[in-house]
Design a protein that fits this description.
The chain is α+β, with helices and mostly antiparallel strands and about 325 residues long. About 40% of the residues lie in helices and about 15% in strands. It has a 7-stranded mixed beta sheet with strand order 1-2-3-4-5-7-6, with helices on both faces. Strand 4, helix 7 and strand 5 form a beta-alpha-beta unit.
Length: about 325
Amino acid sequence: MCAEDRRLSIRTNQRLRYRPAAHRDLAECLTLLPPWLGIDESMARALSALWPQLLEEPSMISAVLEDVAAPAAQRVQGWGVTMILPRAFTQALSMHDRPAAFLTRRVYRALLDDEFALMSDREIGAASARGDLDMFIMHFSLRGHDLLQPQAQRTMAMANDAFRTFHDGYNPQAIYYETSAGNEPFSMASGFERLQFRDEASLAALLPEQRPALFGLTRAGALKRMPGPPARNAFEHQAPLFGFSASQRRLLWFALFDDSDEALMGPLDVSIHGLKKLWRGIYERIEDRMPEFFGEEASGDEGRRGPEKRRQVLAYVRQRPEELRPWQPEDEGPRR
């Protein structure tokens, strides 16, 4: 096979993976903002300045679908953005009862104008413990919009896996999703119900790719269904067992995607000594709550057992995502 044929084969056979959006992705991600958002050039520039801040917020959940075989600056094939919103703000938007269209644009505008405060880790944990957490998928966009194309379908299949990883483990009361009308088949297949805007009639003249559509699911509606679609499954929830601190949960979250010390120190802004301290704290908390977790040899040489403990912990939290999410019952103080 010649070099040109090998390059063509690599591009034809995508090598997709998903991970948290990083600062280095933003320039590429912002080119994928979907047309139905109706964001003008001035607002796009303002969002470019705002997004580095949003990536650091616990209320912002953002994932990229990356093709590692693609050329640089063309690797992000999909970008999804979910925000956990304060209940008072979702009520002001009438999100629970026939809101006006272009919700995402209004949320971005409110963020730019400081009209509401982003929720802290503790506030998210308290809302989750009360069972009144509101999640809003603001947009999910693909580099290729033609869902009939095999590459786009592969990306959408990967998107369902990413949805589970990034949304399961919370305790939402409702999940809302604004997207284009053209994405209705995918949204319905993912388990969402079609909702109505109060100004639905005025949107009829727009092309499907320019016309927003609203989907959503509540806990009451989800739990009437059999498990299966990712949107419905996001409402399965148990309280976490270990109650990790915010910094410990952040370490575990990033370690799911790259557990090397070199990769983790940057996003966590800690030294190698700080990183080791965080891991020790995680192991101690687990051994306190579940002494048998690491087996009989857990007290052996830490230099030898450390990597094995890390492997066991990551294997566990990958399947128990509630351990990665904020959880703050009102009768408990903050975890440190």
